[in-house]
Amino acid sequence: MSVLIDKNTKVVVQGLTGKEGSFHAKQCLDYGTKIVAGVTPGKGGLTWTDDEGKYQVPVFNTVEEAVKETGANASLIFVPPAFAADAIMEAADAGIKLIVCITEGIPVNDMVKVKRALEGTEVRYVGPNCPGVITPEECKMGIMPGHIFKKGRVGIVSRSGTLTYEAAYQLTSRGIGQSTVIGIGGDPVPGTTHKEAVEMFNNDPETDAIVLIGEIGGTMEEEAAEYIKECVDKPVIAYIAGVTAPPGRRMGHAGAIISGGKGDAKSKMEALKAAGVYVCNTPAEIGEMVEKALKERGLL
Predict the structure, then answer these.
(1) What distances in angstroms separate CA 68 from CA 38, 71, 101, 146, 251, one per listed residue?
(2) Domain of residue 67, CATH code
(3) Catalytic residue numbers?
């Protein structure tokens, strides 16, 4: 079993005919993802073909038309930042229940409006500014390099794209693999939080352990720690980036800023340790720590 996506997921790509959409749609199709439609306003009725002529996908003017004609149930978004919020809401209005937005640079105010609009709905929104979601050997929705992932029983949730790849590679190298990997992105208003992803993995009977990769800034990791302490019996292994970051300075990701003495790596690591989480001091320890945790629980 996997969370969010599997081999039966039918994906519509919003922005399929653009440079980024075309390139990554081809990669997803090569991985085996069922991309059944594309959406680009004004180009409805055309057929998108990849540069090798290997795949052909029908293009529609609206997500509603794409869903009606193809049965798409998940959307992958590559539209420019100025139009991304509208693209997310269009997908939700068309009945799409899983929306993954790769676009970076979306205004925070736009994401606040989207977040509020989707509250209380059944829509699961991942992103923006994220690498996407992958269930190894079944389905990839995003820009992750598929070859480093291997089917397994460890779930990964991460704010960092490159650290997502690093953790996955370490698990694959040790023959452990992943159940599903969720890149939630580094923006200050994410669609899916650490706590929500951990909850999904905790409820998945085929996920034995959870890797949580966080950053400085915000309180998502602390909120996840509270949930883990109260509800999670599975081993959780965590790494928090930004230990040496100076307070008050914005560092890389939009959400990575320490202010008011809160949101620093030390406080997040302490909160996770208090919840019984295996906390790594460096990203190089993630694979080793996961293997140790699984062996201690008799799961490896």
Answers:
(1) 13, 6, 21, 30, 43
(2) 3.40.50.720
(3) 253
